[in-house]
Fold these 3 entries.
Entry 1:
Amino acid sequence: MICKHIHNHLEKYDILTSFQHGFRKAHFCETQLLLTVDDLICSLDQKIQPDIAILDFSRAFDTVPHELLLGKLGHYGIRGPIHNWIRAFLNNRRMWVAVDGESSCIARVASGVPLGTILGPLLFLLFINDLPNVVSPGTTTRLFADDCLVYIERSGLAKTKLHCNEIYQR
């Protein structure tokens, strides 16, 4: 119920970045791939070299700082009882490892979104939602859950980026 309520809020206010294609309705790995290939083909058609970096966030879901995430949730308008419920959901979590009948000591979980939950991936998306806004101007960001592709067109000449449709209409 909480996840659905948050999704409705995010859709109503168009909060999730269009560059995120993971864990979202009508956004798939294939949609990200099509957009990226289209961008790269346009660059090549214009004889512009795209510089590309593929980023893999190591243990991304495990390293989300709770207080920073909660601050972002408040910024996105997720406040009041739902915010308090999520705070309780994240805080005071414990974990242990069991292998072949032997268990480790119980340890406090100080960061991360719970894996294996419906809400965890959505909380992660909200945590990285502003990433496309903080990269260098002209850089395109494509996100699929915790995978990130960034690229920028490099040219020695001053240029105006044309939309692909404009190029094909010429």
Entry 2:
Amino acid sequence: MRRIALAAAAVAALSAAPAAEARGCGNADLDPANATVQQLRHATVCVLNVQRRKHGLRRLRQNPGLVLAGQRHAMDMVERRYFSHSSTAGTPFTVRIRRTGYLRRSGRTLLGENLAYGGRELGTPRQIVRSWMRSPGHRANILQPRFREVGIGVVRRLPVHGMSGATYAAEFGRRHL
């Protein structure tokens, strides 16, 4: 069974890349079962930045707080078998990001989140980003010119039973708007 699921969200707070275009993104086509989380994370950021570059936008830098928020959420979704921007307790992604310290000493901020999971070959970084780019909400987060940082959480399992693949949580941010 081939399956991919997507979800996108964005908030402003006052306090498909063809293979040739992403050729320089090593590991972008790795099956998650044969890759490390670090390889999947770096390849996903690379493919995201290829998309941004194609549209004349600045590249995103990885931020440890956003990585932590994404990794925690991806793991929680897999362990508790759900797929949502809010935890099973109702905690939204903005609160999860705040808990990492990412927003400390920030004034105006902009945050966004893309979620996805894909079974087998649909769980590669290139396929996940390609799917996001075909979805208006996900595409808007990827191509949001004000975003400067990203954190990719990846778990090499799915929130549904019986399939191999990967679950992704991409956290986008910009502090000090």
Entry 3:
Amino acid sequence: MHTLRIATRQSALALWQAEHVAARLRAAHPGLDVELVPMTTRGDQVLDQPLAAIGGKGLFLKELEVAMLERRADIAVHSLKDVPMELEPGFVLGAVLERADAADAFVSNHHSRLDELPSGARVGTSSLRRQAQLRALRPDLHLLDLRGNVGTRLAKLDAGDYDAIVLACAGLERLGLAARIRARLEAPHWLPAVAQGAIGIECRTGEPRVLALLAPLADADTTRATAAERAMNRRLHGSCSVPIAGYCRETEQGLELSGLVGDVTSGRLLRAQALGDPADPEALGQRVAELLLAQGAGALLGRG
């Protein structure tokens, strides 16, 4: 294979990630021609409704998968946190790259920390996971929906529509906007989205040549950690329509996974944590999910 075509969304962050993967591929395989195939997805087009109400984060993948099915592209580059727990038949995660900062970012022009916001302050985020944790910490805040790419969200903050917004640190850092981060919201007190900060590469199944090209980009530590987080989410039947968070890290004792299920209305948070064998991250993810379900997570997730 002499040319590899990457399907990508057209947002600045998506293009950065696709260009990053392209550069890594060219470095790993001198002589390989790598082309970007930018496209707009339905998730990018519909910005006046919450993502959960129009079909979830899978809307960011569909057009890219069609391009691969039609052989207009060979791989697709995603923020792994946007990738559904179960891929459509015919597709596989070919590689997970080394994770960047997994934390969330508190961004404000007038306040340096979440606890410094005045009562009733307007905080923008479209994430139910973030809303549940904000509600738990600051029930007095006025939480408002916020959609659009990173630049659009920052522009709304700068226009005075919000007193603060919450974004992913990794996205801001990748776009050269780390200076906008006033404070990091991080584990163990605040948990990120499952697989936040990691880039995943999707490809068609039955493509050994493509998988061989992707292999040098895979990071074993990140692959294990995100596999545990995604296994937890899968057992909980999680999507962007429910507030689920998870973060796994490697310790001297093995993999340590922290999981959270929240309620946006009340701010009630259920938490669980367990250690597991690095050789079996899936089992660890399922164990933490079972611990959360035993606490009543099914009711918060609308399943009991």
